[in-house]
Amino acid sequence: MSRPGFPRDSWSGLAVKAADPDPGVRILATYDPALSSDDADRLSREEDRTVRLAATRHPNLPLTRIRELLISPRGVYPHVEAAAANPSLPVEDMHRIIDEQFALDGGY
């Protein structure tokens, strides 16, 4: 599905796969732009790492969940990175992340 020529219009309707018992099928739901915020939230807490990361990047993931992933004391780097790259993250949060990293690195 990540190949450049894959027909993106076929992604619509994949959200129905969000409750499938197979994680290889559940991940398909994360490609659907119409995935509900509730399903995106649930999948971002998924046991399967691949599904969890894909859901963390989904633009319908609630902002409260994105922020939770960013400040989690037990945050795992790929999940923090995916949350920081979420297209729904507000610019103010992006600036805060940059400022915090700048302070940690001791400035220029």
> How many H/I helices?
6
Radius of gyration: 15 Å
State the end-to-end distance. Answer: 41 Å
The pLDDT mean sits at 85
Element-by-element helix/strand order: HHHHHH
Low-confidence stretches: none
- What's the helical proportion of residues? 40-55%
Query: What's the number of domains?
Result: 1
Number of E-state strands = 0
* Class from secondary-structure proportions: mainly alpha
State which percent range the strand residues make up.
Answer: under 5%
Largest β-sheet summary? none
Coarse shape:
elongated
Explain how this protein is built:
The protein is an all-alpha fold and 108 residues long. It has one domain (8-104). The protein is built from 6 helices and no strands. Helix 1 packs parallel to helix 3, helix 2 runs antiparallel to helix 3 (49-56) and helix 3 runs parallel beside helix 5 (77-84). The longest helix is centred in the C-terminal third of the chain and has 14 residues, at 91-104. The relative contact order is 0.11.
